[in-house]
Write a structure and sequence with these properties.
The complex is a heterodimer of chains A (218) and B (375).
Chain A: E1 3-11, E2 21-29, E3 33-38, H1 44-52, E4 59-64, E5 67-68, H2 72-78, E6 80-83, H3 95-105, H4 110-123, H5 140-154, E7 158-162, H6 170-185, E8 190-194, H7 199-203, E9 206-211, E10 214-217
Parallel strand pairs in A: 3-8, 3-9, 6-7, 7-8
Antiparallel strand pairs in A: 1-2, 1-4, 4-5, 9-10
Chain B: H1 3-10, H2 13-50, E1 54-59, H3 72-79, E2 84-89, E3 93-98, E4 107-112, E5 122-125, E6 131-134, H4 135-141, E7 148-153, E8 163-173, E9 178-179, H5 182-189, E10 199-201, E11 205-209, H6 217-228, E12 240-244, H7 246-287, H8 290-298, H9 303-328, H10 339-362, H11 365-368
Helix pairs in contact in B: 1-9, 2-7, 2-9, 7-10, 9-10
Classes of the chains: A alpha/beta (218), B alpha+beta (375).
Chain lengths: 218, 375
């Protein structure tokens, strides 16, 4: 069982003038899908940035299993897996290579990584034929699912998604939502999704709202 | 480092485009520089083939006289140099003061460049090999054309014995002095201890440079100047200048030299700019890898691993281009870069790709991945 905590966290961008949020304290548990909603500019993505280990809080602490997170590189590799709104796929790698990358990073041999990558692609409902394509040859929905497969391949206890269903058709949104639910409930991951989509929170175990820099429960 | 993480860089289209651009740039520059150099060389060759160079000996600037003197030996040295032809002299003469004749008198024997211009006419005999005596002298010594005249050299340096020389009389003239043709006159100079006034007075000595020596013009001019700068102690005017038709030659060469200078200037400029452009292409190519670097950092790959994973393939990409340019140095089509400079460029690309990669991998991943989206 993993536990992720925000303890009195405030954040301001290095060149920013205002605090995006202040003194946020919240706890996230594994096996649950948590959604964070809020208006545009409320700081949802920034909060996810902190939870992803891409930046340290200006004040306060991020705790993983009760331990403060200091080494962000190690945290990103071993604790948190994130799917960014822009996907950030490797442009110069095929779909299969994108998905094998995290496993190679963790020391898996090439053949095993390829085999598992194909399984992840199947899990996100992507045709195996797409494996040899480059991201630029894929549709937006396919790119999103590749990003999901790649993040899942990290197999970290925390799974984060930023606007995972934005700009997707209903069918693909449903696939993504199912994956998030499955990751939380079947695989016991700690799943947090920032969303504008009204349907996704309906599937969530915990719904949070970010308003005026404060995180509130439903 | 896993090859799976290296290969994608080598597959990046932007990287190969950058490499192709850099190589193309080198090839074009090589061709351009080679063409310019060949063209200039051909033009220089043509001009040198066409040049007519005339050398002149003049009185130096410090001289108040329009004429000058030079050692006869020096003049003969110049005249017999392989570089020259068409030796011409107008008002030029040299005299040798021969020591005692059988009447105990001294006799001056003269050589002139142009006997006709000097007004020498043979009354008897011909102006051929031998000595040409004035009528009075011939009568005084009692010699006729075809006979020999005995003259003596001063032999004080080798004792009191007198050495004599038999010289055939070739002509009786109406001149006031004894004359000899050039070759006979020169033979007197080889006579030990000849008391000779080996001085020329002249103001018009002219000779042509053989065309095959046109390219050695400046070297030959220096050799001539060195010869005339070593005067005979008896020379009264030691300031002799070597001149050639410089203004005419300059008129042919100056415009060409300007164009050569200009080509060289642009060549140098190009050689300076060329690596800068190649480096710029490398930087742009590396900046094109920001996403690759950002995503790898995003996934928690260590900075050192990301650095090596980007730098090694980037340098490996640059290497063929630079090796090609180094190989081109060995061919006539080469860019004519010195080896040292080419190796500096290679070291430059090694350092530059390392520096830019290190800079990019030191950035926060969010900065590489368009942080604005999060802000």
């Amino acid at each position: 069982m993993s536990k992720l905590e925000l303890k009195g966290v405030s954040f301001k961008y290095p060149r920013g003038k205002r605090m995006i949020f202040q003194n946020v304290t919240e706890s996230f548990a594994s096996g649950k899908l948590t959604t964070i909603e809020g208006e545009s500019g409320a700081g949802k993505s920034t909060l996810l940035t902190l939870l992803s280990g891409l930046a340290l809080p200006t004040r306060g602490e991020l705790l993983m299993d009760g331990e403060p997170v200091r080494d962000l590189t190690s945290y990103r590799r071993n604790a948190a897996a994130a799917v960014a709104q822009a996907n950030y796929l490797f442009e110069g790698r095929t779909v299969l290579e994108n998905v094998t990358y995290p496993m190679l990073l963790k020391g898996l041999d090439g053949e095993s990584a390829k085999k598992k990558a194909l399984e992840y692609l199947e899990e996100v409902k992507l045709d195996g034929e797409l494996a040899s394509h480059f991201p630029s040859e894929c549709s937006g929905g396919e790119q999103k699912r590749v990003a999901f497969a790649r993040a899942m391949a990290l197999d970290n206890p925390v799974f984060l998604a930023d606007e995972p269903t934005a700009n997707l058709d209903r069918g693909t949104s449903r696939v993504i939502a199912d994956i998030l639910v499955s990751l939380a409930r079947e695989r016991g991951k700690l799943v947090i999704a920032v969303t504008h989509d009204a349907r996704l929170p309906e599937l969530a175990d915990v719904r949070l709202f970010l308003r005026g820099g404060v995180l509130e429960h439903e | 480092m896993r090859k799976e993480n290296l290969l994608p860089i080598l597959r990046r289209r932007v990287a190969w485009i950058a490499l192709a651009a850099a190589v193309l740039l080198l090839l074009l520059s090589a061709a351009w520089m080679d063409r310019t150099a060949s063209s200039n060389r051909a033009r220089i060759d043509r001009v040198y083939e066409e040049l007519d160079v005339h050398f002149l000996l003049n009185a130096g600037r410090r001289s108040l006289s329009s004429g000058f003197s030079i050692s006869l030996h020096a003049l003969r040295e110049i005249e017999h140099m392989e570089y020259f032809e068409n030796f011409k002299c107008g008002n030029l003469s040299a005299s040798v003061l021969m020591d005692e004749n059988r009447f105990g008198e001294r006799m001056t024997v003269v050589w002139t460049c142009d006997p006709e211009a000097a007004g020498i006419r043979a009354v008897e005999g011909t102006l051929s090999e031998g000595i040409w005596l004035p009528r009075e002298t011939a009568e005084k010594y009692g010699v006729k054309v075809g006979e020999t005249l005995t003259v003596y050299a001063n032999t004080m340096g080798i004792g009191n014995a007198k050495r004599s020389r038999e010289i055939p009389v070739a002509a009786i003239t109406d001149a006031s002095q004894a004359y000899m043709p050039e070759e006979d006159f020169d033979s007197l100079l080889d006579w030990n201890n000849m008391f000779a006034n080996q001085t020329f007075w002249m103001n018009d000595v002219h000779f042509d440079l053989k065309k095959e020596f046109n390219r050695e013009l400046s070297g030959i001019e220096q050799k001539l100047q060195a010869i005339v700068n070593t005067p005979n102690p008896q020379d009264r005017n030691r300031d002799v200048m070597v001149n050639y038709n410089a203004s005419e030659i300059d008129g042919m060469l100056k415009p060409l030299e300007k164009s050569v200078d200009s080509a060289e200037f642009f060549g140098k400029l190009f050689r300076t700019i060329l690596p800068a452009v190649a480096y710029l292409i490398e930087i742009i190519a590396l900046l094109g890898l920001r996403n690759e670097i950002g995503v790898r950092l995003f996934f928690g790959e260590r900075r050192s691993a990301v650095f090596l994973g980007i730098w090694l393939p980037s340098f490996a990409l640059s290497l063929p281009g630079y090796l090609l340019s180094l190989l081109m140095l060995l061919t006539p089509l080469g860019p004519h870069l010195p080896w040292g400079m080419a190796l500096w460029h290679l070291a430059g690309t090694l350092a530059l790709t390392a520096a830019v990669t290190a800079f990019l991998t030191a950035l926060r991943p969010l900065l590489l991945l368009k942080e604005k989206e999060y802000e």
